[in-house]
């Protein structure tokens, strides 16, 4: 701290009174703060008298909770565009808690004021099999089941998001309260069904009567979320201090663009997120696919093909004419299957190019490439399967799959495969037919389709020759 700066907290900053906790979030990170908290603050009818406060729990360690607690939940959102930076202090988090404070979570979920739980725990955090059944062979799930079958008041640790929600919903039922909404904000198609399957599956293992209560009272809206929020570089805090005069130990940076599309009901109310630009729809599927296939799909393609061409960031990759051509081809394939009213695919594509070209958002390709097996299954594989179903070969999406395979095959050190399925991927790339085996990691039916496999193989061979 310098003589010209002050620490950021509610005694040094002229903040509004802290709102009551009516929202919980699991997975406190940069995206949550730049998206759900941002929307909630912007949705307040009277910012000087806010009605909707978040208690946000970290996903693992206590670090971010400790940083935000030292600042009374305040943090600076830096909106970074080609025209410069905007600095806004965001006041929507009124309580930040470490992941292991399950007692506080249980207490809050048994409050009549609580309306919504939002989540960003990644797909792996739901602990589901491919058939959307709770994975009871997971040690984390098994441990939580054992704990939840005992005295809930004595539980001090739960390792899964579903376990924590079951604990809280049990307390809510026991308090004689009505239902709430639990909404996933993860990049997963039909994420409402995903969180529903996870919570109900775990509840079924613990208490079938609780499972029935949840089915009758709790809703699981689906949402499609979008805002590029790169990892904060070390110099961000310095920039904030110089621009605002406040020492912020937890700033976050994001692009100007933000989108939130929601489908579902909220039995105990919700913020008026539409006031901040959120869109409520009757059928979210194609809106989800627009985001997954166009934004996430192009990011994954660039992550692997861009790195193969020695680029480090999205802005560098999209400036490469060959990479951009591959992105446009992928988008052409996806667009054939995105026909619902209100999607505005041409406008969305134009906005994506502008976002990718933003020179002041350093979106690292290596970061995007993490957990590629899951991302490619949801994006490129889904597009290729749609194209195959329409009688076309899906060469553009096949190229994206091939770029991932070429990248994996080029990584001789298994430790460099930054993926929750790294051991499975490493085994596949060492198989007698590594291309087929790696495609099978993404989709076994696709790997068994000889024509599709030939298309992918041709691209891999061109990329690795």
UniProtKB/TrEMBL annotation:
Q: Which UniProt keywords apply?
A: Oxidoreductase
Q: Where is the Mannitol dehydrogenase C-terminal domain?
A: 283-463
Record's superkingdom?
Bacteria
- Give the matching PANTHER family: MANNITOL DEHYDROGENASE 2-RELATED (PTHR43362:SF1), MANNITOL DEHYDROGENASE DSF1-RELATED (PTHR43362)
User: Which residue intervals define the domain Mannitol dehydrogenase N-terminal in the entry?
Assistant: 22-274
Substrates-to-products reaction catalysed: D-mannitol 1-phosphate + NAD(+) = beta-D-fructose 6-phosphate + NADH + H(+)
The protein's GO terms of the molecular function aspect are: mannitol-1-phosphate 5-dehydrogenase activity
According to its UniProt entry, this protein's organism is Corynebacterium doosanense CAU 212 = DSM 45436
Which Pfam families does this UniProt record tie to the protein?
A: Mannitol_dh, Mannitol_dh_C
InterPro entries xrefs: 6-PGluconate_DH-like_C_sf (IPR008927), 6PGD_dom2 (IPR013328), Mannitol_DH (IPR000669), Mannitol_DH/Oxidoreductase (IPR050988), Mannitol_DH_C (IPR013118), Mannitol_DH_N (IPR013131), NAD(P)-bd_dom_sf (IPR036291)
Designated name of the protein: Oxidoreductase
Per its UniProt record, what Gene3D superfamilies does this chain match?
A: N-(1-d-carboxylethyl)-l-norvaline Dehydrogenase, domain 2, NAD(P)-binding Rossmann-like Domain
